[in-house]
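Re: fe (ii) ion structure - here you go.
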Amino acid sequence: MKQYFEFINSVKILAGDKALENIGYELDFLGSHRPLILSDHGIKKIGLLDDIVEIIKDTGVDATQQYTDIPPDSSTTVINDIITYYREHVCDGIIALGGGSVIDTAKGVRMALSQGKQDIMSLAGNEIIKKGKHIPFIVLPTTCGTGSECTSVAVIKNHSTGVKMEFISSELLPDSAIIDVRLTKTLPPKLIASTALDALCHSIEAFSSLQKNPISDAFAISAMRLITQNLLVATTAPTDDSRIALAVASTMAGIAFSNAMVGIVHAIGHACGGEAGVPHGNAMAILLPECMRFNLDANKETYEEMLVYLAGPNAFASTPADKRAERTIQFVEEFIDTLNKQGILPTRLSDFGVTAEQLPAIAKKALNDGAIIVNNKPATLEDIMNILQKCL
Ligand SMILES: [Fe+2]
């Protein structure tokens, strides 16, 4: 165990049946009666925003302040627009209803408002963002992957340069996260698979990173179990139980990696997204087995232990001790392959149009990605190229 470590998760989590009905109480407790609801066109189109607004209205809260123009790849300009909207409409809190882009946008807005800033860029590059004015902030996640509702990270694109900037501060943690099965009910199997694979990656990388600690391990282990026990059900014959299990797993994996960080899968995945537009969850699913193979010698003991969490006690007991690490990787491969056979989870980078000519630029970018710093095994440019070629 590490000699010293820190762990933070200050987010109150309300999960399960009728969790959404608690939103009025939560807002009142936090001192917000005129929140700004942030969402996107997709959520509005499927009627989920209206459903949530009805629930909020029933609690006597003014739910008329809404901003739903958040694009999939939000930016500093969008955040600055929302800051203006918030001030002009005299709002007193923020509700984020959506996936990663909506949540990260809301985090940026909240952080700038709490620091009394009009332009989020004025906080870029700040190593430490100190506690500012409290802005009540509740997150309602609509995917089961990012875990962003419980991470102290926000990824925001610089509108002028196109560069994705990472803001890291405990000031980004929301006050509350509401996990309710109604929020992921319309998520199609393809998105369930790719976002849950992102969460699986968060838990596996957090459990094997240089920055892991016993508390982050506890969250990572529970997340792994829930994902492998529920994902195949949720993509074939979804039940409320399987959906809520994945949503809770995603939150727990978020708590784990927010403290333990991730590793080489995310470093290469970020680069695949930036250079070739590969969707994040899909990049994770494609890269995970090969990256685990690369890390095998450094992570042997961790992978041996992981077998029981991923595959269950019978698989663990029936596998000789010296074969458990390799069996863990095989299990992950077969798990992803099952989803691939359902036609919902591509397993090659070329499925997303990536070409061999793009690989050197992707590898170079991955080598400079912050996530690689805590990978348990150092990687060279050649190592990353090898992984990429195997995944092409
Ligand atoms: Fe991720």
